[in-house]
């Protein structure tokens, strides 16, 4: 018991890392085997909580990518496209079961490499990633019901680029639907978080997945650009920053290659005066401090109805004071490390801009570890829509707070952004929730909850938040081509 505050303190509860074996070096996973990079170049992936090097990882060059694409294309033509659909489903089930068996290992590796708390990797990232494989395993032999005619066709080889904020989950969002739809893949994990994807490569081996169906090439943005530009890639899926997403869209504009983009966001969480306030406070906390705010659909703008502003702010500050920041491997930790030095600098730049433009920042008392990359939970009040912190994605544990008087004003402020990914509505009135939701330009809207994900539910945005949907039937459809032959058959006409 802490005598001064009269509050119970948690003793450390460290997760053991003994079950995890991280190799000193990793090569790419091409054609079912780990192979070193042709150039011999490597980069270090570090633990952002300690700055210790975890492993050296191969940098993918043009030659490596060419090998990976050839492996994926060969596997598509000779094996994967010939396999009965239900056999594809069995592989996906097998992968899901093997991931379950090694779930704890995945959770620890993800926390080490990313900096996120073990409580989240263990209870959110890894189970959700596994559920994507289970869900899509069920789709593999039911593609006739995806709404694209009888026997829709796979594209062939999918080139997939993923970010560092949910490394294994983003891999699952990409690989599970691609394989279920009958494609083979070349995937690149982010340069700061490659380890869970490389552990996934081991799962592919254990599952006896035919060589070449899944290929994982590690590297940075240049490696990603090479994958996207490769002529053997038939479909591109990218999750990452809006800036890179725009560059990719431009580079593919004349090729006709199908492209799905899941980019940034600046989600508004709107709290009306009739909302259950304590429940809303929990939702706001989860909306912005989950995963250190490294979430494209984070509720990074809070809109509070003016007449409850003071009361709500006090409750929010009180709750923020209880957030435990520190070692990601401690099971009590709520807020872990910022993923990289570069990301920390980006957060610092934007928060400095917030203060310089006149917003007021507040942080609860907390002592941050000396080594590693850390940023305390932060709120800004007195924010206006003109401020950079109200318009730009900070991608960190920083909440910008604004007020509104009428629902119409809340809607206008919420929609006044170049993005359109997520929003939250907190109110007791069902009719108001439905009306406001209809007016909001956001791909995903939660009411009286936030950051809830399900593989059956499509996810994606409007405007600069990207194109296309991931998850559910809609997400699956982006890995399929309508079978025009079947759509034009006389029997189809009759049915129509
Ligand atoms: P962030 O700013 O959040 O790191 P990025 O968009 O830079 O997001 O990175 C997301 C993913 O895109 C990473 O895997 C990164 O290596 C990759 N990437 C970065 N630049 C390019 C590019 N020009 N073409 C393809 N992939 C890229």
How does this structure look, described?
- The chain is α/β, with parallel strands linked by helices and 496 residues long.
- It is 40% helix and 16% strand.
- The chain has 17 helices and 20 strands.
- The protein has a seven-stranded mixed beta sheet, with helices on both faces. Strands 9-8-7-10-11-19 form a six-stranded mixed beta sheet, sandwiched between helices. The chain has a three-stranded mixed beta sheet with strand order 1-5-4, with helices on one face.
- It binds adenosine-5'-diphosphate (ADP).
Helical segment tally?
17
Report the β-strand fraction as a percent range: 15-25%
* Structural category: alpha/beta
Question: For the CA atoms, what is the radius of gyration?
Answer: 23 Å
Question: Could you give the count of β-strands?
Answer: 20
Largest sheet: 7 strands, mixed
List the strand order in the largest sheet. Answer: 14-15-16-13-12-17-18
Bound molecules: adenosine-5'-diphosphate
> What global shape is seen?
globular
Mean pLDDT figure: 95
Give the N-to-C terminal Cα separation. Answer: 71 Å
Low-confidence stretches: 490-496
Approximately how much helix is present in the residues? 25-40%
What secondary-structure arrangement, pairings included, does this model have?
Layout: E1 25-26, E2 28-30, E3 33-35, E4 42-47, E5 52-58, H1 62-80, H2 85-101, H3 103-114, H4 118-139, E6 153-154, E7 157-161, H5 167-180, E8 184-188, H6 195-206, E9 214-216, H7 221-229, E10 235-239, H8 242-252, E11 259-262, E12 268-271, H9 277-289, E13 301-305, H10 309-320, H11 341-356, E14 360-362, E15 378-381, H12 388-391, E16 398-404, H13 407-415, E17 422-426, H14 430-439, E18 444-447, E19 466-467, H15 472-477, E20 480-481, H16 484-488, H17 490-495
Parallel strand pairs: 1-5, 7-8, 7-10, 8-9, 10-11, 12-13, 12-17, 13-16, 15-16, 17-18
Antiparallel strand pairs: 2-3, 4-5, 6-20, 11-19, 14-15
The structure holds adenosine-5'-diphosphate.
């Amino acid at each position: 018991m802490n005598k001064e505050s009269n509050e119970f303190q948690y003793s450390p509860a460290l997760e053991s890392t003994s079950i995890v074996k991280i190799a000193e070096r990793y090569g790419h996973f091409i054609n079912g085997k780990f192979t070193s990079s042709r150039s011999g170049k490597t980069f270090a992936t570090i633990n952002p909580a300690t700055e210790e090097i975890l492993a050296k990882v191969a940098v993918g060059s043009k030659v490596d990518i060419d090998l990976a694409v050839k492996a994926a294309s060969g596997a598509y033509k000779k094996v994967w496209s010939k396999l009965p659909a239900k056999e594809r489903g069995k592989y996906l089930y097998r992968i899901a079961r093997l991931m379950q068996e090694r779930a704890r290992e995945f959770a620890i590796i993800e926390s080490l490499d990313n900096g996120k708390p073990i409580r989240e990797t263990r209870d959110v990232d890894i189970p959700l990633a596994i559920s994507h494989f289970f869900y899509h395993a069920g789709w593999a032999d039911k593609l006739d019901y995806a709404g694209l005619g009888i026997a829709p066709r796979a594209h062939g080889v999918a080139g997939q680029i993923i970010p560092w904020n949910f490394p294994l989950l983003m891999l699952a969002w990409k690989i599970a639907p691609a394989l279920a739809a009958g494609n083979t893949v070349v995937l690149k994990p982010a340069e700061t978080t490659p380890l869970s994807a490389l552990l996934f490569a081991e799962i592919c081996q254990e599952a006896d997945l035919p060589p070449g169906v899944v290929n994982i090439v590690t590297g940075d943005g240049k490696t990603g650009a090479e994958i996207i530009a490769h002529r053997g890639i038939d479909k591109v899926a990218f999750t990452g920053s809006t800036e890179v997403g725009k560059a990719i869209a431009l580079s593919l504009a004349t090729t006709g290659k199908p492209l799905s983009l899941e980019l940034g966001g600046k989600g508004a969480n709107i709290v009306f005066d009739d909302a259950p306030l304590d429940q809303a406070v929990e939702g706001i906390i989860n909306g912005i401090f989950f995963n250190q705010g490294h979430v494209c659909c984070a509720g990074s703008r809070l809109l509070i109805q003016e007449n409850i502003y003071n009361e709500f702010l006090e409750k929010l500050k009180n709750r923020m004071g209880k957030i435990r920041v520190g070692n990601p491997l401690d099971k009590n930790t709520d807020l872990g490390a910022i993923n990289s030095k570069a990301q920390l600098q980006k957060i610092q730049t934007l928060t400095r801009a917030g203060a310089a433009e006149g917003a007021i920042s507040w942080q609860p008392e907390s002592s941050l570890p000396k080594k590693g990359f850390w940023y305390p939970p932060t709120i800004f009040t007195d924010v206006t829509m003109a401020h950079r912190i109200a318009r730009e994605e900070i991608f960190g544990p920083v909440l910008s707070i604004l007020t509104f008087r009428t629902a119409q004003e809340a809607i206008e402020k919420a929609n006044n952004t170049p993005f359109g990914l997520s929003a939250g509505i907190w109110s007791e009135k069902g009719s108001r929730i439905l009306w406001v939701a209809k007016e909001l330009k956001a791909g995903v809207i939660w009411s009286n909850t936030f950051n809830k994900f399900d593989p059956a539910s499509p996810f994606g945005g409007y405007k600069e938040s990207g194109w296309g949907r991931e998850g559910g039937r809609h997400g699956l459809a982006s890995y399929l081509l309508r079978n025009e032959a079947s759509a034009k058959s006389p029997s189809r006409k009759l049915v129509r």
